[in-house]
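Hi,

Apologies if this is the wrong queue. I'm a grad student, and the batch job for Phage tail assembly chaperone protein from Edaphosphingomonas laterariae produced an output file that my downstream script rejects. I'm not sure whether the problem is my script or the file. Here is the sequence I used:
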Amino acid sequence: MPLYFSPSTRGFYDADIHVDFPADVRPVTAQRREELLAQGQLGRIIMPDENGDPVAVDPPPLDNADLLRRLREKRDRLLRESDFAVLPDAPFTATRRAEWTAYRQALRDLPESCSEDPGAAIWPVAPAAL
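Support response: The file is valid. Your script probably expects a header line. Output copied below for reference.
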């Protein structure tokens, strides 16, 4: 089973599966491919080196805009997951409802409170569900 890596697509190709290959494919061993895929599972990026051979490298650091986007995505997910707590028929005492309201407000305020350094956000802790 001949294996190849394409620098242009940053992908692996198996001659037993793929019929068409990019023009720039380079042979790679099954062991090397497995090593690189394992590195990919650890968050590293597989890309060509200066010779076109595949290597695993650390991803570039995220800038503040990317960090803030990810923060908002997580915040929005946590708000959706806590929607049940503010429904009119939620079985909570006034105190528990106030805790959930405060938690949700802290989530809404989070992007503004850490816009200068989104990576240092301190996430509010959700109250107990019941």
